[in-house]
Every structure is written in C-alpha cells, then in structure tokens.
Amino acid sequence: MAILVELKDPRVSDVTVTYVEVSPDMRQAKVHVSIMGDETKQQLALRGLESAAGFLQTKVAKRIDTRYTPRLAFVLDLGVKRSIEISQILQEVLPPTADPETNPPATAPDDEPAPE
Known about the structure:
The chain is built from four helices and three strands; from the N terminus they run αββααβα.
C-alpha cells in the first residue's frame, strides 16, 4: 500500500507487487513488481522504486518486529507481460470460436410437412 498511496515520486506509477522473496536470515528481500508500459517507463519506475527503498524499508520496519529490517531490492516481473503477449499470439493463430449467441447452431429441418 505504501507504494500505491504514500510514494510521491511521479516515476512510480502503474506498479503492482506480484510477490516478495525474503532470505532465510530476513536481511534481504526481493520485491518482484509488474509495471505497465513500455521498457522506458518500466526502467524509470524501477529507478524510482530503488530511490524510495529507504523510505519503504522504514515503513516495513514499523510494521514487523524483527531484529533486522530486510534490505529491499526491486526486480521486474515479466510474467504478466509475457502471458498477455502469449494470449495475443494465440488469438492470432487459433481459429475463432463460435459464440452461441451470435452464431446459433444449425438445426436439422423437421420431417413434418409445413401446415397449409
């Protein structure tokens, strides 16, 4: 929430924390983030997060009661971006699926003659 609400850095926008890896000794934490936008925007947002790491570590220190506060390292998570790219490729390659509302299935003609 601190990244979303409390950071005032204009470089840090459209950032989602996907998961966090904490070392067994609680001294290091890799914060995996997904950033919407092109590569330039992603790199700017990562630099903004790195410059705000001290502020965010202070926030973490206030929330957890441990001997050490983990040092935060931010890592770009490309999983979401890659899954969107794969989905777009599959939509181009696979044949379109029939939508039952727009393309009703063909029905066989009735064997009974039409009333006159």
